[in-house]
Every structure is written in structure tokens, then in C-alpha cells.
Design brief:
The chain is mostly helical. It has one domain.
Length: about 120
């Protein structure tokens, strides 16, 4: 049912407890790992990133403050920040934070997302 061997091989660099509590073979952690390592998850996240790029392209100084487009951009910024923040938490849970942050694509994504998130939260 659970692919403990795949989980153990994939996170051996970050093996140990996730969030100081969940062992590698914890059923919830294995279940989450099995879900986020699928191509479907990758395609969904790429789609969300693509939509985020379109939304960022709509931002301009010519958008009238308080307009419907301005409010849609503002609230979608908040939504994307929440989605990408949850992605970091979920992947940190499945892989441990150390293994997650050692992965170069994750570092690039986090560096690119941090200014967008900071701008939304400020």
C-alpha cells in the first residue's frame, strides 16, 4: 500500500523526522509523499505558475486603483501566495525541510517567489 522504499530512497539525504515528529514511515507522510511525487501534481503546479505569470503580466501602472481588475489582481496575489506557501510546507513535510531546500529547483522557485510574497504581505 505505501511505498516506504521509494520514500526512503528519495529522502535519504533528509531522512529523519519531519517537523520534529513524523518519522519516514509515518502513514500520513508516506501518503503525502506519494501524492506530491506524481506527474499530475507537477502539471497542476506548472499550471498554477503559468496562471500566476499571466496575472503578473496584467499588473501595470495603468491599472486604475480600486477598479475591478485591480481588486482581482490583489486577491489573486494573496491566493497565489497562500498556494505557494502551502506547497513549501507540504514538500517540507514530505521530504524534511533540509532535503527540500537542498534541491536546486526548489531553491530557485523559493528565491523567485519570495519577493512576490513579500510584496503581497506588505
Amino acid at each position: 500500500m505505501y511505498s516506504f522504499t521509494a520514500l526512503h530512497c528519495a529522502i535519504s539525504a533528509g531522512s529523519g523526522k519531519s517537523f520534529w515528529y513524523f518519522d519516514e514511515d509515518h502513514p500520513v507522510r508516506v501518503w503525502v509523499y506519494d501524492r506530491i511525487t506524481t506527474k499530475t501534481y507537477d502539471y497542476i503546479m506548472i499550471g498554477i505558475i503559468f496562471l500566476n505569470c499571466i496575472q503578473m503580466a496584467l499588473e501595470s501602472p495603468y491599472v486604475e486603483p480600486g477598479s475591478t481588475l485591480d481588486l482581482a489582481i490583489y486577491y489573486s496575489d494573496i491566493g497565489y501566495t497562500i498556494i505557494f506557501g502551502l506547497e513549501v510546507l507540504i514538500k517540507s513535510f514530505a521530504f524534511t525541510f533540509r532535503a527540500y531546500i537542498k534541491n536546486v529547483p526548489n531553491q530557485v522557485r523559493d528565491v523567485a517567489q519570495r519577493p512576490c510574497s513579500t510584496g503581497t504581505l506588505v
